[in-house]
TrEMBL record, chains A, B, C, D:
<dbReference type="InterPro" id="IPR036388">
    <property type="entry name" value="WH-like_DNA-bd_sf"/>
</dbReference>
<dbReference type="InterPro" id="IPR011711">
    <property type="entry name" value="GntR_C"/>
</dbReference>
<dbReference type="Pfam" id="PF00392">
    <property type="entry name" value="GntR"/>
</dbReference>
<dbReference type="InterPro" id="IPR000524">
    <property type="entry name" value="Tscrpt_reg_HTH_GntR"/>
</dbReference>
<feature type="domain" description="HTH gntR-type">
    <location>
        <begin position="8"/>
        <end position="76"/>
    </location>
</feature>
<dbReference type="GO" id="GO:0003677">
    <property type="term" value="F:DNA binding"/>
</dbReference>
<dbReference type="InterPro" id="IPR008920">
    <property type="entry name" value="TF_FadR/GntR_C"/>
</dbReference>
<dbReference type="Pfam" id="PF07729">
    <property type="entry name" value="FCD"/>
</dbReference>
<protein>
    <submittedName>
        <fullName>GntR family transcriptional regulator</fullName>
    </submittedName>
</protein>
<keyword id="KW-0238">DNA-binding</keyword>
<keyword id="KW-0805">Transcription regulation</keyword>
<dbReference type="InterPro" id="IPR036390">
    <property type="entry name" value="WH_DNA-bd_sf"/>
</dbReference>
<dbReference type="GO" id="GO:0003700">
    <property type="term" value="F:DNA-binding transcription factor activity"/>
</dbReference>
<keyword id="KW-0804">Transcription</keyword>
Length: 234, 234, 234, 234
């Protein structure tokens, strides 16, 4: 269902090319991007495709445009971003994260309100699986998806887990990148990622609607920062 | 993609039967519902099906359960709700509204941030179509869907309109009920419905992120109240 | 306690002078404001005072600055704004509204959660008083304050009404302007203002936390728009 | 200005006495509190005073009431809570935190939007002072207050820092408790507290409105949990 159309696909490809240049250091923080016209020519794409790429690069905080002055590189993502993912996939992964932010924060709030004991148990089991996988050094991709799915399923609204199911492939690709970056990082960083999941579980356990929404939103926001900003996590 | 499974379908049917009894006055505000056991027997369904129906009746504010004392009718929806919709469809329509609340409020915020002039024009055209249809006494169902779709499309994230597209049928059925209730109501009520759409447009026009999110959220919250509470709109 | 310091007072005075020029049409939508240097000279104030005025004019949406190009008039408030209020008071009134937005939306959510029957009765009484005053053509300033105070008092946290009490004078001055503009407007507009209060009451009555927060936030957001934008309400 | 009145003072005293019994283990998780009547008699206070104490114990998540069945102990705060604070002060400290949540999350969002370079520098300096104090083993109470004050001051609305100033004494007493609990905890816990402040600073630095609001809200929510729930932080 959720398949990108042609404009998106070409825009995503161009996004990936510019991303690659930022990650590799060809374009540095503060550098100005070529003009829209120049990009149309040098990448041989139409103006809507260039705009599509620029809107997303800006949405993801990688570039910023200043009225009249052009578009400038704003921050440099960790180099692992283009090593663990196809550069042309990154734009779609971040669009997906933007939708997840809206859907899953509301799902977490509803889960705190309506979850049954057995739904809570499902969330807890997925949390334990994440911890176990992390200890063995595996990437807990399917455990991570299972965790988020279990929270959505506890919302008492079957449409929430259905949206996640539809995005399954895209979500797991994003998790693979984020968890790969985490595995390469410090033990503290891995701990933080686990803590964020634990905080979501705890808030749903004690039926704290506000905390549950907040903890989910915070987790996804940090996730976004981890994959887009190399200065982010120490 | 988003098709309800068996437990949901049976739960939705039972939901519809109880809803019918509340709307028709067989069950009145304050009345206690039969116990879960009794419902299993008299409707010949399993306990998970009964629970599914009760979770949603409670989510939609039609009943409330008091620990140890049972489940009681909380409010009576307008009788048009079961006249303009199949009673067994209502539960799914309200689940859909819950998801829309999450998705569309975020889409409106992003639209205020990123919309282009031509995307704004699409929103404005849909708004004019709603107004024109209302004047002729038609139900502006497809104009209403076009409005919400245009806002989602202006979010700069193709996944937002795609979610709406996937839910198209369900959303339009919900709009048919709400707009039919509105057409039967006072001119003031119709005016209010139009005003809510106008406020969303205006906030996106002046790039006011906070107002846009708020106006969309408010609109969908009022919509939910209009279809579930007969005392709601005067 | 909350008395503006010297920088604020001078900035507010300058804000009022620029506001006056926008309202009277000396400065029109799209016009560029003089540079910071020019303003320092022509108004004989220091640069921090000019900045203080510009930050607030921008915060209130009256001007917008474009990097490298200067600061431009963005929208024109209704002329009643400077007729019903001292121009040099307007900045402070809008700062106050910004704080109220944060404090009162949370207070409304907590009131929905914790209000007692007698606290609900206080809110309802204030609502009736607003309606009665509106009918006689009086400005319901003290009834309006009483309504907002009663909501804050129902939050189960005495600090919320105490903040409103501290801001009492400032809030009532803001209400006087907004209600005077409303009294001059169409009957529909007065109706809308009443409806917004009624929606807050109803959500608190049925203990709907999400709706209560939303209804309060929406009301204060519309209020802000009514006093700052002459195109706003028809 | 913000001085509790008699009902609050007596309610806070009773709150402190019940809190003491929960912390010391006289009342255990799951135990039922005496009835309102019994409390009136045994503590020799009026019913509104008992209600005031119960509303707040429930608001703070320490007890929960089940309709018809009474009020039960819900969770046990860390024993440091009554060692580092006067038990009769705890209720007021938590009320203050509830107001801070509303005010400071909005202030952080506005700071991300409007902060100047010198205001950002003030936030960074306070952050460095927190880190330095933590390293020497001192309680960074005034650096912590300075950090939150600097964020509020960067909001471009002088009322936000003024509210914090008014609550200065209460806020610092709360910080003393929380930071004392942190100092007794694991190094990881201290790290987490610092990280939360760092995340707020970073979001304001890169002008990310959504992240800044979220990071402040998350920090204050965790703070609340740390002081009210002994199971909270490992």
């Amino acid at each position: 269902m959720f398949t990108p159309q042609k404009k998106e696909r070409l825009g995503d490809k161009l996004y990936g090319q510019i991303l690659q240049q930022i990650v590799s250091g060809v374009l540095r923080e503060g550098d100005r991007l070529p003009s829209e016209n120049q990009m149309c020519q040098s990448f041989n794409v139409s103006r809507p495709v260039v705009r599509q790429a620029l809107v997303r690069l800006q949405a993801d905080g990688l570039v910023a445009s200043r009225q009249g002055a052009g578009t400038f590189v704003q921050k440099r993502p960790p180099e692992g971003l283009t090593r663990f993912a196809e550069p042309s996939d990154v734009s779609e992964m971040l669009r997906c994260l933007e939708l997840r932010m809206a859907v899953e924060s509301q799902a977490a709030a509803l889960a705190a309100l309506r979850r049954t004991s057995s739904e809570l148990k499902d969330i807890e089991n997925a949390l334990s699986a994440i911890e176990a996988e992390m200890k063995t050094g595996n990437l807990p991709v399917s455990a991570d998806f299972a965790f988020h799915y279990a929270v959505a399923a506890a919302s008492g609204n079957v449409l929430f887990p259905q949206v996640l199911q539809t995005l399954n492939d895209l979500i797991e690709r994003g998790m693979t990148v984020a968890l790969s970056l985490t595995r390469e990082g410090t033990p503290e960083r891995a701990r933080r990622v686990f803590d964020e999941h634990y905080a979501i579980f705890q808030a749903i356990e004690r039926r704290d609607v506000q905390s549950a929404e907040l903890a989910m939103r915070y987790h996804l926001d940090r996730l976004r920062q981890r994959v887009t900003d190399s200065h982010r996590d120490r």
